[in-house]
Amino acid sequence: MFQNGADPPDIAAIIVAAGHGSRFGDTLPKQYHALLGRPVLAWTLDRVLGHERVRRGVLVVGSGHVERVRDLAADHPVEVIVGADTRQDSVALGLEALADQRPDLVLVHDGVRPNPSPAAIDRVIDALETVDGAIAAMPIVETIKRDADDGPLQTVDRSHLYGAQTPQGFRFPALLQAYRAATQTFTDDAALAVEHGLTVDLVEGNADNLKITRAEDLQRMARLMGGGETRVGSGYDVHRLGPGNHVVLCGVRIAHDGGLIGHSDADVGLHALTDALLGAIASGDIGSHFPPSDAKWKGAASDQFVTFARDRVLERGFRITHVDVTLICETPKIGPHRAAMVGRLEQLLGIEADRISVKATTSERLGFTGRGEGIAAQAVATITSVG
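and the corresponding structure tokens:
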């Protein structure tokens, strides 16, 4: 049925994110709130526009939010447009934005459903070989009650009841025609399509494809998407200063009038971070895995220790969500090298720079660091379970 014959169908997606979210209880629309460190809408774009069968999309947002979403949408082939006061009118604007391109199929998805599974999206697309429309849905498993004001509480037969999700997929020409002909408001695209004579089937959605409506839904979604358990580890290290012409701190070589003394390269920042990561998974400390008595580690680069700890974290089913390293010294000055240090940690840990903090402080010339006899470091690592 597709116009491209045996070629894969040309599929576009409309992401509807123009709502204000009055039930969420915040002036900032819920699609821009943070979910596991990223806006909800960023996850949605990744899931839908990142699907291998979806070629491009239209993102429909509220007036005043176009600039806000440009960075979120930068990695995807998507046009950003301003929506309308109702969801139906916003979808209509998205369809018209695609009208000249005439894709074979279109998926319509709510911007506040950040976790549709690739398999559910595939099921919606595959169903469109034989019907005009298909929607992801899940059977209702709870017992359904109807509260009748003028009679006893009633139990409703749930055997044919489903909770509709998105994406809802359609043959594009048919849905465009139906929307252009619509004269009343419907609660979803499928209802409008059926009213205008289109055949629409249900396909299996996924249970974790929740619509974020209230603030507590964010917490539940974070748990479903891998934010179930959070752990925090701390680390501390110190090395004496001796003869030399440089120090290595957080993986960055810095010219100095002395050198740090240690069995390895004496990078106190990476040593503290290694202990923080190992501590978060209760897996000993740096010395238990890399004993100074082992000649193998003589002069070794400390990035090996960090990557070892990182891999242990990942093997235990966690991901690193944030690290904070504090260097304690009078000299060298850390500020000019902070960006390079963050960049190096970004490479070693495989996380975004905005999850990495490197800062410095002095001890007001008190103690061994104040006298320039050594450099110390403290580190905190936060990890979150992914299963």
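(Above: one complete record from the training split.) Residues 182 and 358 are 57 Å apart (CA to CA).
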